[in-house]
């Protein structure tokens, strides 16, 4: 277990500009997705500030840990992370699923959380790719330089 913590700390020690880029991108992404989910009546957070706890305090560190891994590996680990988050959110009623929403209609109510987990697991590989592109554009840093 000690080896894991050492590995994790090295993955989490990143340039402050990269961390700020992650925080800004994920915060805006979270606000947009929460707004969209409420507008089309799929699902929403009970409180707006949950964007901070879920997207910044939960998803950013996981993204940093998964950064640099192959797409399928990021997705697989992201699926576990999002499955736990979705399960917890609906079990604790900190997330609200609109009755008879489009996902319920397409996949049935029993598969709603699974569908959400399968979709949101894509955030990790797509988020790492997108933040990397934005960071490169803003700061002129290449993928190889970021990995060092």
From TrEMBL:
Keyword Transmembrane in annotation: yes
Domain of life assignment: Bacteria
Transmembrane spans: 18-36, 48-66, 75-92, 112-131
Keywords per UniProt: Membrane, Transmembrane, Transmembrane helix
The protein's name in its UniProt record: Uncharacterized protein
Taxonomic lineage from the root: Bacteria, Pseudomonadati, Bacteroidota, Flavobacteriia, Flavobacteriales
């Amino acid at each position: 277990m000690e080896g894991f913590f050492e590995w994790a700390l090295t993955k989490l020690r990143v340039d402050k500009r990269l961390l700020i880029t992650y925080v800004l991108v994920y915060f805006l992404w979270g606000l947009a997705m929460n707004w969209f989910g409420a507008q089309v009546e799929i699902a929403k957070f009970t409180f707006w500030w949950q964007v901070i706890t879920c997207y910044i305090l939960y998803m950013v560190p996981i993204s940093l840990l998964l950064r640099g891994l192959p797409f399928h590996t990021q997705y697989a680990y992201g699926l576990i992370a999002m499955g736990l988050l979705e399960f917890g959110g609906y079990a604790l009623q900190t997330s609200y699923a609109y009755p008879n929403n489009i996902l319920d209609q397409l996949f049935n109510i029993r598969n709603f959380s699974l569908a959400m987990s399968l979709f949101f697991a894509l955030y990790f590989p797509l988020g790492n790719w997108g933040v990397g592109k934005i960071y490169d554009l803003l700061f002129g840093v290449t993928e190889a330089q970021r990995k060092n």
